[in-house]
């Protein structure tokens, strides 16, 4: 092996094998583009994005790590979401969860409603 050398597979690499995948339609109701990274808790994305937010709880975009999706003003896009792995503990983003996804779900839904996040039907 030569230092810095790498080997590529002839077979495609499939991410998130065995995890559930959910498709949702997302509309940017805002007046500016919104970009969302691969590991952002999608439930907590910009409140101007309108989609069935309940379906996104505990999920992130089903795209390669380090990439993102851009939503232009007024545009609607179909995206795929996949569940977080590991201990399912989420901190940061919009501050709606900050802890265990399981333990904080009711509180997160309430906070999102109070803060005007679009797409909640509660």
From TrEMBL:
Q: Return one Gene Ontology term, BP aspect.
A: urea catabolic process
Which controlled-vocabulary keywords does the entry list? Hydrolase
**Entry's EC annotation:** 3.5.1.5
What is one term from the GO cellular component aspect held by the record? urease complex
**UniProt-listed PANTHER family:** UREASE
Query: Which Gene Ontology molecular-function terms are recorded?
Result: urease activity
The species is Marine Group I thaumarchaeote
* Name under which the protein is recorded: Urease subunit beta
Q: Which residues form a coiled coil?
A: none
Matching Pfam families, A to Z?
Urease_beta
């Amino acid at each position: 092996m030569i230092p810095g050398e790498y080997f590529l597979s002839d077979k495609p690499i499939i991410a998130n094998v065995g995890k559930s995948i959910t498709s949702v339609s997302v509309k940017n109701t805002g007046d500016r583009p919104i970009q969302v990274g691969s590991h952002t808790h999608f439930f907590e994305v910009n409140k101007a994005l309108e989609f069935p937010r309940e379906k996104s709880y505990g999920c992130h975009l089903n795209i390669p790590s380090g990439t993102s999706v851009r939503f232009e003003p007024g545009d609607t896009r179909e995206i795929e979401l996949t569940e977080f792995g590991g201990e399912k503990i989420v901190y940061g983003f919009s501050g709606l969860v900050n802890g265990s996804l399981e333990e904080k779900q009711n509180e997160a839904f309430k906070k999102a409603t109070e803060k005007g996040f679009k797409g909640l039907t509660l």
